[in-house]
Amino acid sequence: MATLPFFEEILYNYELSANQGFSGHWLAKKFRSVYPSALHELIDYNDRYIVKGSSGKGNWTHCPWIAILDRVITETPQKGYYPVFLFRRDMSGFYLSLNQGVTNVMAYHNLNASDILRWRAQDFRQQLGKLPDGFTTAEIQLFGETSTVKNYEHGNICSKFYDANAKISLNELKIDLLEMIEMYDFLVYNDPTSTDQEEDKFTEDAGNLRLHYRIERNQKLIQQVKKVKGYKCEACHFDFLEKYGELGTDFIEAHHLIPISDLEGEKVLLDPKLDFSVLCSNCHRMIHRTENPSDVEALREIINNAANTAPTPLT
Known about the structure:
By secondary structure, this protein is α+β, with helices and mostly antiparallel strands. Helix content is 38%, strand content 15%. A hairpin with a 5-residue loop joins strand 3 (81-87) and strand 4.
């Protein structure tokens, strides 16, 4: 089976390892560090995500997992929602599942946890609409006996299954992961959670700040940014009103310029004029792919250089 080496390693070794002592076991150690690090390298904008894995706490879990957590939504797999690789108990295969943190739901809702998870999963599915090829909303089967494993089955939003006996290419797995991250991004971007305000001052508690992406969804602050900065992209000068007429009125995206490392652990006053730039949708996505997302001038130079070196159209 030609897939990521660590997936092969898990499928081939987990059942045998689960019959051995847990403490200090090499496979348990890899779940905590090596496997999450390897998966982290495959994710674009990987500073935005935390990757965690587990084969159990003190004892082997029935169904080990490796989860990808967006800091905007959660930094722990106990709550929120996130993509997760879930391995069947019998190691007959594994799922790439868009799933939910079940621990907090079980703590708050007890016997109703499974119903809550199913209801939330259905709501997420309605938001996503049509799924990429290969993904399904069918129930997943992990064959575990614990309530946590069963609730992971109930919390599944959509998933794709990989049979241990089938040939799975590395390229296929990378494409599937990219499509899963895109679905996750869509849900995160449309998540109704908003940042806290303090007496109408535009401040963020950087100790609790998960990502500047969350600042960019602070609607009260963003409206002030647009009022101050206008509605023309500061990188490529695209104007939605000129392009789309009335449909593009007052449309632009705000981009937060202060690096998160400069905000850590302190209360910061955000200046709509100095701490933000307004960008069109394309430039906003592209600047997050640069080495320094706070440098709008560098993005402007990239755009100008690309325009100067563009190939001559065929006649």
